[in-house]
């Protein structure tokens, strides 16, 4: 399959937290039929091929392809969908308060909670070797592009690999640094607590209407339960959050986007 020929698609990695945000956005906006769900094989490094880096220099998912134009980043996708399909369910993705809440969820690096350095003396030799290898693969691609550039003149993809390298190094720091793990774990628990407290007197994260903040909260909770801790831990002393979460799982959009009965 050639990604560059796609006209309308969601590039995603099934099961990853931001990909779930992307898929849920399509279902909540009722436009899931218009975009072909296209899995990017991250394990095989499909997200760092020149073709993908041309689409998204960050080498991340999700990316929405709309009429052949690429829109990376889940928040940008939400804002695009809210603007383009403004008659469909408004997610209030331009509202400052909604954005501020969404950013609280986005700031928690859940990858650290899953695969990060949980103990100061944890042996990270294997992970370091793996990260060094994936870094080298980026450099190899970049060098290939540089050689091509000399032959053909001008190549934006070579520069784009510098962006991907920055993302890679940031990811490596998040995974290998113990204080970073501690920081994100605290942020995660705090966010669960504050969300639980606000849900004691309202049905949704922002009050009595479903917004983009619910899409992030539900995706992060779902992912947390798959990868970080069982429901008994996530919901311990957080009964309002628990009730909210199971209400969200009952939504048809969530069932379909998260493939709950696949
Ligand atoms: N700010 C981005 C974050 C996207 C993101 O971190 N995606 C992860 C998957 S959940 C990814 O693509 N990671 C691959 C990598 O960085 O190598 C968004 O909101 O879409």
UniProtKB/TrEMBL annotation:
It comes from the Eukaryota. InterPro entries: Glutathione-S-Trfase_C_sf, Glutathione_S-Trfase, Glutathione_S-Trfase_N, GST_C, Thioredoxin-like_sf. Signal peptide: none annotated. Residues 6-89 form the GST N-terminal domain. Coiled coil: none annotated. Belongs to the GST superfamily. This is GST N-terminal domain-containing protein. The lineage of its organism: Eukaryota, Fungi, Fungi incertae sedis, Mucoromycota, Mucoromycotina.
């Amino acid at each position: 399959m050639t990604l560059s020929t796609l006209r309308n698609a969601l590039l995603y990695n099934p099961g990853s937290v931001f990909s779930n945000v992307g898929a849920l956005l399509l279902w909540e906006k009722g436009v899931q039929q218009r975009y072909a769900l296209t899995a990017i094989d991250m394990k095989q490094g499909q997200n760092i091929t020149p073709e993908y880096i041309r689409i998204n220099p960050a080498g991340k998912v999700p990316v929405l392809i709309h009429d052949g134009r690429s829109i990376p980043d889940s928040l940008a996708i939400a804002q695009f969908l809210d603007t383009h399909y403004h008659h469909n369910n408004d997610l209030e993705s331009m509202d400052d308060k909604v954005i501020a809440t969404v950013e609280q969820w986005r700031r928690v690096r859940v990858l650290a909670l899953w695969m990060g350095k949980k103990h100061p003396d944890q042996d990270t030799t294997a992970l370091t070797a793996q990260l060094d290898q994936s870094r080298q693969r980026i450099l190899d691609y970049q060098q290939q592009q540089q050689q091509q550039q000399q032959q053909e003149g001008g190549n934006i993809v070579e520069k784009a690999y510098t962006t991907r390298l920055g993302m890679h190094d940031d990811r490596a720091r998040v995974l290998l640094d113990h204080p970073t793990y501690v920081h994100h774990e605290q942020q995660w628990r705090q966010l669960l607590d504050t969300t639980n407290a606000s849900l004691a007197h309202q049905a949704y994260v922002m009050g009595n209407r479903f917004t983009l903040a619910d899409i992030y909260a539900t995706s992060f909770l779902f992912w947390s339960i798959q990868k970080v801790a069982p429901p008994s831990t996530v919901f311990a002393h957080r009964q309002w959050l628990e009730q909210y979460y199971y209400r969200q799982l009952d939504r048809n959009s969530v069932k379909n986007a998260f493939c709950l009965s696949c």
